[in-house]
Amino acid sequence: MDLAARPWTASYAPGVPRAFDVPDGTLPDLLDASVRTYRRATALEFFGAPTTYRDLGDAVARAAAGLSSLGVGAGDRVALVLPNCPQHIVAFYAVLRLGAVVVEHNPLYTDRELRHQFEDHGATVAIVWDRVVPRVQRLPADIAVTTVVSVDLVSAMPASRRLALKLPVRRAREARAALTTTERLTGLRKLVTWQDLLRHRPLSPRHPRPTAEDTAVLQYTSGTTGIPKGAILTHRNLLANAAQGRAWVPGLEAGRETVYAVLPMFHAYGLTLCLTFAMSIGAKLVLFPRFDVGLVLDAARKSPPTFLPAVPPIYERLAAGAAERGTDLHSIRFAISGAMNLPPSTVTTWEAATGGYLIEGYGLTETSPISAGNPIGPTRRPGTVGVPFPGTDVRIVDPEDPSVDRAPGEPGELLIRGPQVFQGYWRRPDETRAALLDGEWFRTGDIVRMDEDGFLTIVDRIKELIITGGFNVAPSEVEDALKSHAGVVDAAVVGLPRSGGGEDVVASVVLAPGVSLDEESLRSHCRGLLAAYKVPRAIVQAEDLPRSLIGKVLRREVRTQMLDDGPRAEGKGDTE
């Protein structure tokens, strides 16, 4: 294929540029521009409490000064262990303003999962949701982190909400317990409150700033192998992807959009669509610490959303909830689905409920994350993941010999080149070389088919990563958890398709002699080691597992057997 021609650009919606230049600057520059332009406009809304762009800019400058006083400087990693909240936005940009590196973490991770990442990135300062502070304090003494900044979500709520949470009734106590903790936050490490950071004078404008090529974020992903590793994303990578997102949506009105942050911002998808894209267009970003249909529909009455990035189950539940409650969703003009396949039935239901577009996109953590999408217009093709974004080149190659390109219509491995492609894996040069062909083409591990117009259809995955609820699950990580149980001799973990899209985590286990299968006991064991979405939904017993000639378990054959046997009917595992 003649890459210079980029035939897919003919299918772009009117107004989407065929050529693309990466904006100059860094992510702090992006926020500074919005603060100057939209000073009095609402930047953030949290349970009804507004924050203007001017106040957001001031909070970022104060938090940056506070972090500097803790010794944070250029190149240092700072761990964020936060749900969606105003403090998350402020912390993200404050770290970047110092030239330091943000490391995002899922606050639902177990001690074991957090330990692996903290050992790997070596951050000395962590900004942590107070409910998770005890978990970080329990990290072994040899972990580098020396200072923990505790964040109380309730303090960012309006006064009326804070008072309601103090009522001596069970419902208020339960709501407060879900948002904050009463546990004494003591431990090995120095403890600082979020309010302590904000008491500092704003960081001087003369303080050195990062450059476009500096690392901005380490985003952990299982990639094409089982052990989570940090994808290195620069300011240029993330700035480019935010600009590509803006270019992809004709009709956006800067300073007038309301974006709902129902996606977790510690995930690459939520990070780009909410932390960078939304801020770049001067949008009002309505923050939800977790997805809850009632909370979202209540917020929609006060601040009607116009742009909603989400995953298929969220669209389905919101459409059903709105119909039940009589909530009008017609303010939502644009909705972009990612992280899992989008069923055509979901598109039909959503567009009937809103009158707006719902399109599917494609991306990976290593591509910041978005690299392709269906056009927002009549040229879209449901069932595909669309065409490459502006400034993005793709190749479809023989997975055994990536120097050989496939002809249009033939399946092959998808390779991506563009300004959003990451710089490699943190401290893993061998895996970086394997992932970046010729140092620039990212090997996705996805088998796709591209038609003559450039539309991509996902066929299969070379890698055995499981995508459940929009999150990546490495089979080997779940297998290790299962095999640490005294009654399990061996295990194989695979993903089986759900009827509504995405996959269920399912395990096949070989048990020790005399041990009977107790699914709930094994799941309980896994819950102590893994985040809930990684815990197998179903566990079946096998006499042995299919293996290669050298003894390697053949997960593909395990998956085929499970599809034939249908074990999910008995599954009672955790939901995401």
Could you explain how this protein is built, in words?
The protein has 576 residues and is of the alpha/beta class. Among the domains are: 50-210, Rossmann fold (3-Layer(aba) Sandwich); 388-461, Luciferase, Domain 3 (Luciferase, domain 3), CATH 2.30.38; 466-570, ANL, C-terminal domain (GMP Synthetase, Chain A, domain 3, 2-Layer Sandwich), CATH 3.30.300.30. Helix content is 31%, strand content 24%. It has 17 helices and 27 strands. A seven-stranded mixed sheet has the order 7-6-5-3-4-8-9, with helices on both faces. Strands 17, 18, 19, 20, 21 and 22 form a six-stranded antiparallel sheet that branches. The chain has a five-stranded mixed sheet with strand order 12-13-14-15-16, with helices on both faces. Strand 14 and strand 15 (370-373) form a beta hairpin. Helix 11 (293-302) crosses helix 12 (312-325) and helix 12 packs parallel to helix 13. The two termini are 41 Å apart. Residues 567-576 have low confidence and may be disordered.
Task: Enumerate how many helices there are, as a single number.
Answer: 17
Query: How confident overall, as mean pLDDT?
Result: 92
Query: Largest sheet, order of strands side by side?
Result: 7-6-5-3-4-8-9
Number of separate strands = 27
As a percent range, the share of helical residues equals 25-40%
Question: What is the name of the CATH topology of one domain?
Answer: Rossmann fold
CATH class (first level) name of one domain: Alpha Beta
Strand content: 15-25%
- Which structural class should the secondary elements be placed in? alpha/beta
Radius of gyration: 23 Å
Identify low-pLDDT runs: 567-576
| CATH architecture classification name of one domain | 3-Layer(aba) Sandwich
Shape: globular
C-alpha end-to-end distance: 41 Å
| Assembly of the depicted chains | single chain
Biggest beta sheet summary: 7 strands, mixed
